[in-house]
Amino acid sequence: MTKTGAQILWECLEREHVTHVFGYPGGAILPAYDALKHSKIHHVLVRHEQGATHMADGYARAAGEVGVAVATSGPGATNMVTGIATAMLDSSPIVCITGQVGSKLIGSDAFQETDITGVTLPITKHNYLVTHASELARTIREAFYVARSGRPGPVLVDITKDAQQTSCEFDWDAAKPQLPGYRPDLSPDAKEYEQALELIQNAKRPLIFAGHGIIVSGAMKEVREFAERTGIPVALTLLGLGAFPASHPLNLGMMGMHGEAWVNHTIQEADLLLAFGMRFDDRVTGNLKTYAPNAKKIHVEIDPAEINKNVKVDVALVGDLREVLHELLPHVTSVDRSEWLDYIDQLKGDAAVRDIQNLPDNGHLYAAHVINDLWRETRDADTIVVTDVGQHQMWEAQYYKHDRPRSLITSGGLGTMGFALPAAIGAKVARPDAEVWVVVGDGGFQMTMAELATIVQENLKVNIAIINNGFLGMVRQWQEFFYERNYQATPLLNPDFVKLAEAYGIRSMAVTQRSEVVPAVQAARRHDGPVLINFKVEQEDTVYPMVAAGASLHEMIRRPSPIVETAADE
Amino acid sequence: MMNTFVVYVENKPGVLTRVASLFRRRAFNIDSLTVGRTEKPEVSRMTITAEADRDQARRIEANLYKLVNVLLVENITNQPAIVRDLAMIKVAATHEARSHVLELASVFRARVVDVAPDSLTIEITGAEDKIDGLLEVLRPYGVLEMVRTGIVAMRRGSKSPTVASAGSSLAHVAADDDVSYSV
Question: Is the pTM above the cut of 0.90?
Answer without folding.
Answer: yes
